[in-house]
Amino acid sequence: MVIRSTWGNKTENVEVFYVMGSSSNVDTQRKIDAESRKYSDVIQGNFLDVYRNLTLKHIMSLKYVTYHCPQAKYILKTDDDVFVNMPLMKNFLSNDLSPFGASQLLLCSVQKSASVLRTYRSKWRVAFEEYPFRKYPPYCPGWAILYSPDVVFRLYKSAQNTSEIFWIDDVHITGILAAKNNIVQTDNTDMIISESAQHQLVNNDVFPKEKFLFGQPDLKEREIRTMWAEVVAHTVTKSIFK
After folding, report:
1. Structural domains in the chain?
2. Which Pfam families match (predicted)?
3. What are the tens digits of pLDDT across the range 157-186?
C-alpha cells in the first residue's frame, strides 16, 4: 500500500493501522491475512467491507483506540486515498497544539447545512425512514478527522448506547452523536492544500508557499508519491502558523 512507503512509514511517535471489514472472496481474504501477518498493522472486523457498513468500521476504529491505544495523544482517521504532510503534522500537534495532548478536539473540514439527498440516482440517497430531516447537523467528512482521546471515548460510548445506526458514518458519529454529546467540530479547511497549489506541486514540481497538513481528497497513488517526495525534499517548519 502506498501509505506504508510514504507518509505512513515507520516514524517516531506515530503508529499507523489499516481498518477494514471482512471479504466474502476467499482469495482476497487470504491476501488480507498474509498482509496482516507481514505488517501487523491490519485491524479487521467481523462484518463485510461494503459501503453500507462504514459506520460499523468507524465505530470499530473508535473501539480499538479506546482499548488498545492508552498512550495516544491524538488520533487521526483518514481514507486510503488521502495525503498527510506527516512531518508538519507532528510539529503541528507538538508545537501548535500540545505535546501532552488536547481535549474536546474534533478537527476537520466541517460540513455545515448539508442537504439530505433523496434522489435515486445518488449513491448517498437516504430514505425518509432512515433520516426524516432536510439537513444534516454539522459533521466531519470522513476522509480526514483528528480526534483527542476523550472525544474518541465519548463518541464510542455514545455509539454503544445508541440502538439505531445511521449508515452514513461521518454524519452518524461526528454529526449526530457529536451533537448529542455537545462536542463541537473545529474547522481546518485552511490546513488543506488548495486545488491549484496541489496541481502545481504534483505536475510542475512547484512547492507551495502555503503550509498544509492535508492534500485534497481522492488522490491517485502517483499523486501521493509525488507529494511525499516533495515534502521530504523540503525543510519542515516548526509551526503551521509561522
Report:
1. 2-232 (3.90.550)
2. Galactosyl_T
3. 999 999 999 999 999 999 999 999 999 999
